[in-house]
Amino acid sequence: MRITRIDATPLAIPLKEEFHWAGGTQVGANLVLFTVHTDEGIIGYGDAVCEDPRAIAVTGEQMARQLVGKRVGDVEAILKSIWTEGRWKMFPQFAGFAIAGIEVACWDALGRGLGVPSRAFFGGQVQQELDYFGFLQGDEPTKLAADARTFVDEGYRVIYLKVGRGARDDDACVAAVREAIGPDPLLRIDPNEAWDLATAVDRIRRLEQYDLDWVEQPTPSGDVDGLAHVRRSVNVKIAADQSVFTTAQLRHVLQKEAADVIVQGPHDAGGLLRFRQQAFMTGAHGLNINLHAFMQSEIAFYAHAQVASTIPNLTLGNQVMHQLLGERLTRGAAPDITGGRYRLNDQPGHGFDIDEAAVAKAHERWQTQGHYQTVESVNKKGHA
Hints:
By secondary structure, the protein is α/β, with parallel strands linked by helices. The chain has helices spanning about 55-65, 75-85, 90-115, 140-155, 165-180, 195-205, 225-235, 245-255, 265-270, 270-285, 300-310, 355-370, and strands spanning about 5-20, 25-40, 45-50, 130, 135, 160, 185-190, 215, 235-240, 260-265, 290, 340.
């Protein structure tokens, strides 16, 4: 089964509600859908997250020219071709996002062609169900607390909160959420690189009283020594996320003992295979890995769940964000994550059926309105 064509389709999908984080406010998701066609008529799908879909789509189309005629299952050879025959290794993080979309689509096509779930290609399932966090939205303590309580009542074991908007706001939000959920559920916070070293140590020490499970990427991603300093200075586990987008970066973080847990995902790593390899690498250093999520569609959720189910050192409270999107790209019922638990289906490939009409609608929106921008306040909504 050989690749005959790869399409890159930019998409713009509105969110159900505004998404608040340290970088601003988002009102929509920007994606590129990669479609891999084969000589046997089998089609596979994968999506890439991005700021501007035009850049990822053009990059993916250039990469795709190298792949026509290759066997869809020769993923390692495909990755080697992309990294060595182009200059993409000079831009590993940017190129990795486009590669991830193409690579995910290749695995989907292979699974569909062979009639097996794609997790079979990564060692088989060891996690009979996956555990996901309850993701809080907004910036008002009262609403956050109420939503957190609802998650816990539904059975979620891990609650996740974005911080980094200012000490007073962070204190109020974290305090309200912990009071609402009680002492047992795990509470994780993510400043998204918002703090310098001194601020990170100060803020985390102030928040230790709320029994945090971990703080994700508190400082700028490029300063691994700084992250290690923060880890040694506080009594809360530190998770590395943006500091480990590439395998080389992960090795550096592990060697420096800069994190207690690794937060990584296929979008960041450059695909399912590299993510699986990095999970093994993390486990070899005695650490667990948490599945990372971006503002992505349920296509990514299904695909990432396949490989996550094969990882022995996977944590509780893995990340999930497709539910924030106001439109879906697949047919049938949405993924059932009742109480934060998800059981994979046995459909071939990644386990979904594409909704071509929904894809066309999201593509038309991108064509007519452009991509969604991250804005600094809720009063500056719009497209580019």
